[in-house]
């Protein structure tokens, strides 16, 4: 389906599963982009962030793989903040009003941070990973992630640190 700059994308059930299970069908270079698809960002916003992995073509690849779906155009959307989307879901007012967002899964967040830091820093990530593994609360994981971002800024530069922060901000912040 053609995407306008104002189209908003959501992860499908397949997309959420691909992230959670590290599905090999999801190319590693597209994983951070899929993580950032949140039902709020427009194609224009995602394309800017995804410039280094193919921009619009990368988003179209995720759509072709069935990992994202079109929600609609920004400005014409109901406020669905915190909703856990599935491309086949139907909503009515009662179910939307009763919806409670899921509690963040600390194990999944921990695994995402460790995977990203190991891939970016290699052996230099050992001390940071120990800090991530000892965090027992969401706040602790946020603090450990902030240290990871600080180290990335020192070792890899601002662009890499900023990309890390953007990619994981939705996962880490309640």
Structural write-up:
With 174 residues, this protein is mainly α. It folds into 2 domains: 7-98, no CATH class; 106-172. Helix content is 54%, strand content 6%. It contains 9 helices and 2 strands; from the N terminus they run βααααβααααα. It has helices at 13-20, 31-36, 43-49, 56-64, 93-98, 106-121, 126-134, 138-155, 158-172, and strands spanning 7-11, 68-73. A two-stranded antiparallel sheet has the order 1-2. Helix 6 packs antiparallel against helix 7 (126-134). It is globular.
Q: Shape from CA axes?
A: globular
Task: Report the strand count.
Answer: 2
**Percentage of residues in strands:** 5-15%
Total domains: 2
SSE order, as H and E?
A: EHHHHEHHHHH
Instruction: Specify Rg, calculated over alpha carbons.
Output: 17 Å
Q: What composes the largest sheet?
A: 2 strands, antiparallel
Relative helix content:
40-55%
How far apart the termini lie comes to 33 Å
Arithmetic mean pLDDT: 77
Low-pLDDT windows of residues: 73-79
Q: Which strand order do you get reading across the main beta sheet?
A: 1-2
Top keywords for this entry?
mainly alpha; 174 residues; 54% helix; 2 domains; single chain; 2 strands
Short description:
This protein is mainly α.
Explain the layout of strands and helices.
Layout: E1 7-11, H1 13-20, H2 31-36, H3 43-49, H4 56-64, E2 68-73, H5 93-98, H6 106-121, H7 126-134, H8 138-155, H9 158-172
Antiparallel strand pairs: 1-2
Helix pairs in contact: 6-7, 6-8, 6-9, 7-8, 8-9
